[in-house]
Amino acid sequence: MTLRSALHRAGLRYVLHDRGLPGSPDLVFARRRAVIFVHGCYWHAHGCHRSTIPLTRREFWLSKFTANKRRDAENDAKLTAAGWRVLRVWECALVGKSARSGDQIAKDVIRWLYSDSLIQDIPEIDSAEPGSC
Prior knowledge:
Elements: H1 2-9, E1 15-16, E2 27-29, E3 34-39, H2 58-81, E4 85-90, H3 91-94, H4 102-113, E5 119-122
């Protein structure tokens, strides 16, 4: 909701969860042929401080996280092959001590929307720059 509110305040309009696209992206900007996924760091094994691996049933969880990452990569490939651009906004960029402000994320999204970048990430504020993850 933080991201959606900031983007709406910035004047951007989007469609939510288009099930006709691979991975059912969280936000779809059809006119810009761009989609945004808001990924939970834990479930998508981001590698930041929020993406821990449980100590019990480790093999199960490692298999689960690997399958999630593989599915994400397949969805990215299908979307880019169909002419869509993909932005991932990570949970750590939206909540907690390492979070960016809603306005900063909206600026990063707008910059990306008007760029030529095919696939990019917006990580937590402690990471170097968007896309460096």
